[in-house]
Every structure is written in structure tokens, then in C-alpha cells.
Amino acid sequence: MFKYYLGLDIGSISTKGVIIDENNKIVAQSYLWTEGNPIGAVKNVLEELKKCLEGEYKIVGVGTTGSARELIGTILKASVVKNEITAHAIGTLSFYKDVKTIFEIGGQDSKIIIIDNGVIVDYAMNTLCAAGTGSFLSSQAKRLGIPVEEFGDYALRSKNAVKIAGRCTVFAESDLVHKIQIGHSKEDIIAGLCESIVNNYLNNVGKGKHIEAPIVFQGGVSKNVGVVKAFEKITGEKIIVNDNSHLMGAIGIAIIARNNGKEIEFDFSVKDLKFETHGVDCNGCPNKCEIVCVLKEGELLDLWGNRCEIGRERAFENYKKSN
Q1: Cα(231)–Cα(225) distance, rounded to whole angstroms?
Q2: How many CB atoms sit inside 10 A of residue 284's CB?
Q3: Which of 146, 152, 154 is nearest to 224 (CA)?
């Protein structure tokens, strides 16, 4: 019987899942849109992953990462729950042991990780501004009437990338409209957008960081060859993009679950259970905590957000009164 390990990276835009074997080989993978429903997205990912598995096996380790890692970790009774920085670093090091810099640009945020001899020594994240992220690219693609999947090809055909103000989404959109109105080609505008994304990233997320090759670029935006080319042009370095760059967080957390050493018994039937979340306010003390209750088939599974035990008790009492 095969022993497998499940890794889930639940982000605001997309949810990624992989199943690896004891040698870190990927035996199943899934990438779906979160669509504001992380529980529903995870259920769909688990359905896809299960379809890919054959023979006799058991899932003995489960790890969650990403913005909804605590919620999904509670629901799945995950053996490990870790932040994205750790998961992405471990996943990348499994492919590139000598990596020194990791660029990551996702749907709504971005991060940089600096590694020295396999150890994270510095990092930074930008979760406050959407300029330069996947959602930004998607909105500009709609404005230009071009599928975002073709953005990179347009950028590569550019003869002269125009300068686009990329420090802010609003300013970038205004500048893009102006460039369209005065007659610049779509190819040059898109190439300019790619370069503005890179400059914005390096001047914000990468500000003050010691960027050194080998550099690995990951996240959904890493699939845009125009942005990859812009990174190479501006940094003067070769940018490595793995075929599984969009899954690296899920791969990393699956490896962490494997290395954890504590085996669990995971059952795919969990995807058929009904899970709900409810927000309740606690007025038991001046903290006035906002608490999230997670229910499994109507029974309280867990809750968080309370700063004291009063909050835990009051939250459940308030939930029962309101239902």
C-alpha cells in the first residue's frame, strides 16, 4: 500500500492541492479558483485529487498553507499548518537546493524570500496593494480585450515598451488608457505593463533586499512570459520558472507534512460533510472580540478570534441563541 501526503495552499484567488509520495513525487494535482468560498474550493480540489489516484493507498499526512490555512486545517484536522513563506521555501528547495532568491506574485499579493545555504534569512510580503498582481493583470487584459493567457506573447512581440506608472493600480489604469488614446500599439503597452509590474515589485517588495542568483520565480504570474522577460531585463539575471511554479506552496506544505513524522488517517469522505462558519461578537469584556465559529454537521468543531476563555464560552452561547 502506498503512503501519500496531501498539501493544500488556499489563497484568496486560487486553491492548489497536491498529493506526493514518500519520494516527493507528485501523484495528483489540482488548481481551481477559490471564488470567495475556500471550503467549497477545497472540497472541489479534493474531488479532483481523488480521481487521479489509483491502486491501494492511504493519506498519512495533511498540510495546509495560504490565507485560509487555519480554517481548512481545522476542518481537515491537518497534521501541520504553516505560513506561505515557509511552504514556498521548502517547496522550492526540493527542486533547487542552491536557490538564493524566490520571487512570488500571486492573484492578490506578492512576496520575496531570501535564502542562504538552504535557510530563510529574510523575506517581505505585500498584501495591501493589488498593483502588479494577477488580479491587476486580469483587469488590464479585459480593458484591452485580450485573454490574459496571451499577455506574454503580446509582450514578446513588442519593439518598444512604453512606460506605465505602476506604483498604484489607479494611476496605472489611468496611464494605460492615456497610452491607448495616443496610439501606442497593444504589444508595446502590454510590454510596458510587464515592466511596470517588475519595477513595482522590486521597488516595494524587494526594496532593501539582497537579490542574488539563482532566482526562482513562482506564483500564477510566473506563467506570463512577458513578466519573466521583464524580470530578466531589469535584474540582468536568468529567471528560473518551474513547470510546477503555481503549485510550489502546496508542494512545500505536503513535504513538511511528510517530514513531520506524525502519521494520521485522512479520509476523502470529509469532502461530503457539511461545514459552516459563523461570525459572532463577544461582549464579555472590553476586548469585544470578533470570533469565528466552525461547525461540522451543525456541531461546533472549533473557534478562534477570542483573546480569553470568556470569549470562547460567550461565542458558543451567542451562536446557540441566534440559531
Answers
A1: 10
A2: 19
A3: 152
User: Do residues 249 and 229 touch, judged by C-beta distance below 8 A?
Assistant: no
User: Kind of pairing, strands 14-20 and 119-126?
Assistant: unpaired
- Tell me what the mean pLDDT of segment 23-34 comes to: 94
pLDDT tens figures, 146-190: 887 888 888 888 888 888 765 666 666 777 777 777 878 888 888
Q: Where do we find the cell 460567550?
A: 314
Question: Checking phi first, is residue 225 left (phi over 0); if not, alpha (psi -120 to 50) or beta?
Answer: alpha
User: What is the rounded distance in angstroms from the CA atom of residue 61 to the CA atom of residue 69?
Assistant: 15
Mean pLDDT of 301-309: 75
- Cα–Cα distance between 143 and 216 in angstroms, integer? 30
In angstroms, the CA 192 to CA 190 distance is 5
Cβ(92)–Cβ(218) below 8 Å: yes
Q: What integer best gives the mean pLDDT of the chain?
A: 87
Q: What is the pLDDT of residues 30-79, one digit of tens each?
A: 999 888 899 999 999 999 999 999 999 999 999 999 989 999 999 999 99
**Biggest alpha carbon distance in the chain?**
66
Residue 240, C-alpha cell as written in the block? 528560473
- With contact defined as beta carbons under 8 Å apart, do 268 and 46 qualify? yes
Cell of 293: 465559529
The per-residue pLDDT for range 96-118, each reduced to its tens digit, is: 999 999 999 887 788 999 999 99
What amino acid is encoded at 52 in this protein?
C
Q: Which of 293, 297, 261 is nearest to 280 (CA)?
A: 293
3-state secondary structure of 261: coil
Helix (H), strand (E) at residue 101: strand 101-105
